[in-house]
Amino acid sequence: MVIADAAEEWEVRESRTPFQGKVTGVRSEEVRMPDGSWARRDYQTHPGSVSVLALDDKERVLVLRQYRHPVRHRLWELPAGLLDVPGENPWHAARRELFEEAHCRAETWRVLVDFYTSPGGTDEALRMFLATDLSAAEGERYEAHGEEQEIEVAWVPLPELIRLIQAGLLHNPTLITGTLALHAALTGADGLDALRPADSPWPARPFEA
After folding, report:
1. Once rounded to an integer, what is the mean pLDDT over residues 89-93?
2. Which of 27, 76, 72, 24 is nearest to 47 (CA)?
3. Per-residue pLDDT tens over the stretch 31-79
4. Which of 7, 13, 108, 180 has its CA 20 to 30 A from that of 161?
5. Contacts with 191 (C-beta within 8 Å, 6 or more apart), sequence order
6. Which of 59, 124, 148, 150 is labelled catalytic?
7. 100 catalytically annotated
8. Neighbours of 12 (CB within 10 A)
9. To the nearest whole number, what is the mean pLDDT of the chain?
């Protein structure tokens, strides 16, 4: 048995979009089950997203706190953003998000992890980058809008983030995934060299170079 995810698509006899918002929508489909019956599956459609785990030379991680209305919490998170343009290069989008949300730039980029954020309920795919060799960005800061106007910024040592996750005090799935993936990479036999280049293919959201 090969332990790797594999693309597969079950037969669909009806597909409609009862709601389409500015960014995401809801799709309702009738899907054929293995026993031959049909079942309705409703899920959120999503253009995809990127996230950045920025790590400084003291092994501190850049985290942001902002209000998330659906869960009624201010959550500590990593810089992240949508892939607004179909086929957009995720590396370009990640560099944009790091600049806009933290006014920061990085010389070295790697793919840290790719994942589906909640595959039972949405088709959102996220690519997370590891950004190192950091410095302050040049030029004027990006003018924030909406929830981003009250973003708080902190640099937290990696061991402290792990402790807070294990204590149940941090809940953002991207932050949790990135923190644990980074710890696994740093403690692995090949270290960060085991990570993929920043321009690696991404079948979930194909992009142009």
Report:
1. 97
2. 24
3. 999 999 999 999 999 999 999 999 999 999 999 999 999 999 999 999 9
4. 108
5. 185
6. 148
7. no
8. 12
9. 95
Question: In the 3-class helix/strand/coil scheme, how is the chain assigned residue by residue?
Answer: CCCCCCCCCCCEEEEEEEEECCCCEEEEEEEECCCCCEEEEEEEECCCEEEEEEECCCCEEEEEEEEEHHHCEEEEECCEEECCCCCCCHHHHHHHHHHHHHCEEEEEEEEEEEEECCCCCECCEEEEEEEEEEEECCCCCCCCCHHHHHCEEEEEEHHHHHHHHHCCCCCCHHHHHHHHHHHHHHHCCCHHHHCEECCCCCCCCCCCC
Nearest to 105 by CA among 71, 131, 78: 131
Question: Can you give the pLDDT at residue 138?
Answer: 85
Listed in sequence order, the residues at least 6 apart from 143 whose beta carbon sits closer than 8 Å to its beta carbon are: none
Which amino acid, residue 69? H
Which range (15-19, 134-138, 199-203) has the least confidence?
134-138
